[in-house]
Amino acid sequence: MKFVILTGMSGAGKSTALKMMEDIGFYCVDNLPIALIEKFVELADLRDSELQKVAVGIDIRSGQALDEVNEVLDQLKSEGKNFEILFLDAEDSVLVKRYKETRRNHPLAGGERVDKGILLEREKLAFLKKRADYIIDTSQLLTRELKAEISKIFEQNQDYKNLFVTILSFGFKYGIPADSDLVFDVRFLPNPYYVEGLRYKNGNDKEIQDYVLQFDEAHDFLDKLEDMVNFLIPNYIIEGKNQLVISVGCTGGKHRSVTLANELYKRLEKNKEYGLKIEHRDIDKDAKRK
Description:
18% strand, alpha/beta, elongated, 2 domains, GTP-binding, 9 helices, 9 strands, single chain, Rossmann fold, 4-stranded parallel sheet, nucleotide-binding, RapZ-like
């Protein structure tokens, strides 16, 4: 039997993830009382049981009983019961936004602000995050992307690393993305905006790509950036980082940054040690066509 404990921060998407696990054949139980976990595993693990894949949701709603989880997990381990822990996380600012959008109260906030409840929850769940086999940061993930990550781990049985990398192009005129970890300025390259016939195209168009990549400086930049990122990522994984946003910016976020972000993505996508996606934040802003 495959036994998974699904846990994480309130608002990070645990309920959605449980539904996704049901879709790939897991028998899911949410908010099972901690005292019943051992008995549930025992029943599910019977030889004549039809339950081959089981997921149990545990979160802050367990209250004081949450303190007993470590003891229960240690007991299961001593009995030779194999289990994996999936921890869903998200940035505090994202969690606050989600609570405001749904107009729900955080279970630990009481009469305080939501961020106070989030801080307390992080402290109470820290031991589970430390024990987790997989950590997925849902801050930047779309529903379909979360589904793909869960499928990769539990359905396709691919090796999974806890780091998810987002390559993000942007325009400095619209501000540096607030969630950036690494920011690179490519305004040193000639700007296609001032070239006849190129102004209203973007970095996804071949004409812009050909223009930007004709300069040796563009390739030198990509070589050095790729080398640095390949050095940093394994160290980020060791350190426990689970979300990395690499932002590449030019003036308007349409030409140079898009082209180089696409090229960096192509260079990194062959690496299977981490999740990878690309976004172009400002590519459609002030869009005009002849």
